[in-house]
Write a structure and sequence with these properties.
alpha/beta, Glucose Oxidase, domain 1, Rossmann fold, seven-stranded mixed barrel, 10 helices
């Protein structure tokens, strides 16, 4: 069955359907990773996005359920050049097309995904629609207006508080769309972890008596979370705080900084980041379309992107408050993760 991917700039890509037989709309983003599509499609940070895989063959390793980052797929649709119909990975539990059909996520293959990625790089972020028939510009505008959602973290956050036991310091996590791998990373630091909804009040966070706070990664424009900023700042004034990705951006805003949308997002592996204190360069895994900026009044900049010089890490000038934009749970950033958690541990223990 033929399908069309239409961008808001008028560009049209024709392909054939796979996965779920449906239509979709959202922001079109590209992913350069060659594998790990199961983790990507279940990452809450991709909520509502149309994911373009630039590697020409996707799905040859199959789907590995234990690698999922959440309970189900969060992406709006999948765009590929070619999908593998008979994956051969020894851990494979199902093929990508079958998984998407089960999760009711539509896909399109036969698309020149590298040409599409080039458009997104040169012209900036684009909204798109995946349809069975071509739409007029007015029809597309109606779809965008109907399907537009703000503050997506409110949709992916936990509905109830829960605790994962550990023998180390107790941290409370503001769940803005936390990944399972992030929770695993926190457990590997031997932390006791209590996860609360991002809608929880300052009093609810402090009532669990945490020694530190983690602000998780998550989807959406940080400017849509003004209601959370008071809680973020209130926690930062009384507890050590570590902000991850979206949590990092909210820290910047809570202390008077700004955020801005990137011309094209940082998504994929091997993004080079400079650690300013040591002069070392690390290859990092990233997924973000926004960055913190104009935060220097309150923060020292600790890490920068070598691609575009944007802020990748920061430390508050007087408080035990830190933020990192890249994904700490992904190797080979282990050295950065170790140093950051050593400092976080010491702050929580009052050393």
């Amino acid at each position: 069955m033929e399908k069309y991917l239409q961008l808001e700039n008028g560009k049209i890509f024709k392909g054939t359907a796979f996965g779920y037989d449906g239509e979709a709309s959202g922001e079109v983003v590209f992913q350069t990773a060659m594998s790990g599509h199961g983790q990507i499609l279940t990452n809450p940070s991709y909520k509502g996005q149309m994911v373009v895989f630039t590697f020409p063959l996707i799905g040859n390793g199959g789907i590995h359920l234990e690698d999922f980052e959440s309970s189900g797929a969060t992406a709006a649709c999948v765009v590929v050049k070619e999908v593998e119909k008979s994956p051969g990975g020894f851990r494979c539990e199902m093929d990508l097309a079958s998984y998407l059909a089960h999760e009711k996520i539509p896909g399109i293959q036969g698309v020149d995904t590298r040409a599409l990625a080039k458009i997104l790089r040169e012209e900036g972020p684009q909204k798109g629609v995946l349809t069975k028939r071509l739409l007029t510009k007015k029809d597309m505008e109606r779809v965008f207006h109907k399907d537009h959602k703000e503050a997506l973290a409110y949709e992916v956050t936990t509905k109830e508080r829960y605790t994962l036991e550990g023998e180390g310091p107790h941290v409370a996590v503001m769940d803005l769309g936390i990944k399972k791998s992030t929770l695993k990373m926190l457990r590997e630091q031997n932390l006791k972890v209590t996860v609360l909804p991002c809608t929880a009040s300052l009093e609810e966070f402090l009532a669990v008596h945490p020694q530190g706070i983690v602000l998780s990664e998550g989807p959406g424009d940080p400017k849509e979370y003004e209601k959370i900023l008071g809680v973020v700042k209130g926690l930062s004034l009384v507890k050590p705080v570590l902000g991850l990705s979206l949590g990092h951006q909210l820290l910047g805003k809570a202390f008077g900084g700004e955020t801005k949308k990137l011309p094209y997002g940082h998504r994929g592996g091997n993004h080079p980041v400079l650690e300013k204190a040591t002069g070392k360069i690390f290859a990092t895994k990233q997924h973000h379309g926004y960055v913190a900026w104009d935060v220097e009044e309150a923060f020292h900049i600790t890490h920068v992107s070598l691609q575009d010089d944007t802020i990748e890490g920061m430390r508050h000038k007087t408080l035990p408050v830190y933020g990192v934009q890249f994904q700490l749970d992904a190797s080979p950033g282990d050295a950065v993760t170790k140093r950051l958690f050593e400092t976080f541990y010491q702050d929580m223990e009052g050393k």
